[in-house]
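[step 3/7] inverse_fold.run input=structure_tokens len=142
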């Protein structure tokens, strides 16, 4: 008589997806630097340079975090929108899900605090962006 041996089932490897970050920045050089920095840290990065692109990306990509330049411009034929408009739209779209926000600006800090008063953002980072500070803010937010 043969004995049947039962082997334990192999555990399936748990697949975790990289957190997705939307970078909203109208300056191409800064946008590419942020993309490179964040991808180098293991994040999936989607980029937008205008309000319209950002809104489309939020709807299609469902990012885990949005970093936004406080002062973004529109492209030819588009009305320029400030970065806070992206945040307003993201929060109305969220479908019960909070999308953390990191605002970046080279404006005077007092002015920024006044403009962002009452907004539930995660971090406010002054420009020029310090890579360690950005990564610390991103890691804390998501």
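[step 3/7] decode complete -> sequence:
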């Amino acid at each position: 008589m043969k004995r049947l041996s039962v082997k334990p089932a192999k555990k399936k490897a748990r697949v975790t997806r990289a957190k997705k970050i939307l970078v909203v920045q109208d300056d191409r050089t800064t946008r590419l630097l942020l993309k490179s920095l964040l991808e180098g840290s293991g994040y999936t990065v989607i980029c937008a340079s205008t309000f319209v692109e950002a809104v489309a990306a939020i709807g299609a990509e469902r990012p885990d975090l949005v970093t936004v330049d406080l002062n973004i411009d529109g492209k030819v034929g588009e009305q320029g929108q400030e970065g806070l408009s992206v945040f307003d739209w993201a929060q109305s779209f969220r479908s019960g899900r909070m999308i953390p926000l990191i605002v970046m600006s080279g404006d005077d800090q007092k002015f920024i605090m006044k403009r962002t008063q009452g907004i539930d953002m995660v971090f406010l980072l002054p420009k020029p962006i310090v890579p360690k500070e950005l990564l610390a803010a991103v890691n804390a937010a998501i």
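[step 4/7] annotate
Residues 20-141 form a domain with the Rossmann fold fold (CATH 3.40.50.2300).
The first strand starts at residue 20 and ends at 24.
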